Amino acid sequence: MHIDLPKDVKIIIGTLENAGFEAYAVGGCVRDFILGRVPKDWDITTSAKPLEVKSLFRRTVDTGLKHGTITVLLGKEAYEVTTYRIDGTYEDSRHPSSVTFTPNLSEDLRRRDFTINAMAYNDREGLVDDFSGMEDIRLGIIRAVGNPEERFHEDALRILRAFRFAAQLGFRIEEETEKAARDLRETLGNISAERIRDEFTKLLLSPHPETLRSLYQCGISAVILPEFDRCMETDQKNPHHAYSVGEHTIRAIQNIREIDVAGESPENREAYGTIPSESEEDRKRFRYLRLAMLFHDMGKPACLTTDDEGIDHFYRHPDLSERMARTILKERLKEDNKTVDVVCSLVRYHDLKPKLDPGNIRKQISKIGKELFPLLFQVQRADILAQSDYQREEKLQYQDRFEEIYRQILEEGDCVSMQELAINGNDLIRDLNLKGGKEVGRILNELLDMVLGDPSLNERGFLLSKAQEMCGSADRKEEGS
Ligand code: CTP
User: Fold this and answer.
1) Which of 30, 340, 351, 476 meets the CB 3.0–4.6 Å disulfide criterion with 119?
2) For 313-344, how does the pLDDT look when each residue is reduced to its tens digit (9 = 90+)?
3) 221 CA to middle of ligand 1, Å?
4) Is the CB of 87 inside a 6 Å radius of any atom of ligand 1?
5) 38 lines ligand 1 (CB under 6 A)
6) In which band, very low, low, confident or very high, does the pLDDT at 258 lie, cut at 50, 70 and 90?
7) Residue 405: which residues within 8 A CB-CB, separation 6 or more?
């Protein structure tokens, strides 16, 4: 096995070797290379102690001196060089609370989480694969190195990492490893929200988000997202549905495909980890959409009612789903405000089905904001396609028409917000001598309402005269009262 190491990595390994130490590329980068994927970053493991590493390179950063990690800077790139070590238990994502350095590569590999992550490579020795990582890659298996319980005791996050790798790679988790994950699932409760969020999000954005089902079956979602378990346990006896709320949710998540969001060709689809799109914006949009699908029906279990005919209904569930999404995104997943806002709006409006006339749709656009609609349409289609076949054609036809009217409104350049109105608050204050504040707001709102009904009225002279009339009528009302 030959790995085509980048030039910088060869320089670092060569420098360490020339000084009499061992050094290898290790972990995720070796795994990714073997899988034919572009490694995100190249980590290096070495027999040199941190201070020895520092002395050999001109520019370094003490990233985790006491854990053995020195960052070596070459040009614009940064490489983590870590001394062979045996770990104690972990306190955060990267650092165990105590480490012992070891001169032995095999001991360093032995403390790693999964066999596919426990391989090392340099040009001198070739691949070091003491735990059959290659074989497990060939078989498509996530297997803990050595005793899985020990590995999970060292760091409970590894339980979730097992499912995350399975979801990203389309691998299955080996039996003993899965059993240990199941047995030790409660210990995930001790892991910080941020670490859980990072792994969970990777799983959700992966090519196999249906791994959520395994998280449920192994009792792991019960620890990190019990609201999802309620969904899995809520049937939907309703002709529009064919699955439980949870199964519907899984399918709806699967229906958000990166290819649709990024508009890329299937050939370009490198289905691993983050989304291979060129654009950061596309990546964000994909993330919003998958999160929105996860939460869109989460309020349903608590909203369930069954009518006399035995049909289940979930009235007002979008409002509750939105509240739940907001709490979970903010407090548990510690998401940024923009993510919370976009995802919550999508959840809240996912069932929006306005009367299909342009005036009404312009009103909806002004209420919700035109930027959200392209995302909302994707949410609605993903939702429909995860329901039963009942009335599917009609639903999709409605959707086509809704989207067409939206597009026409944008093409026409119709006014759909206060900012696009041909006059503003200052005009009213100046021309009509209004004192600002409430009255100005009231008049602008009335004008906007009018213009949304008939966009040809968005004309400065006309709006000012209308505003004048409105002032007059308000004065008269006041006088009369
Ligand atoms: N590792 C571990 N236990 C952890 C985290 C990491 O044993 N809880 C080891 C694994 O050998 C892993 C390496 O440290 O390959 C690097 O970890 P990390 O950067 O978190 O993951 P990657 O395997 O690189 O995967 P990805 O880049 O997809 O996050």
Assistant:
1) 30
2) 999 999 999 999 999 999 989 999 999 999 99
3) 22
4) no
5) no
6) confident
7) 356, 357, 358, 361
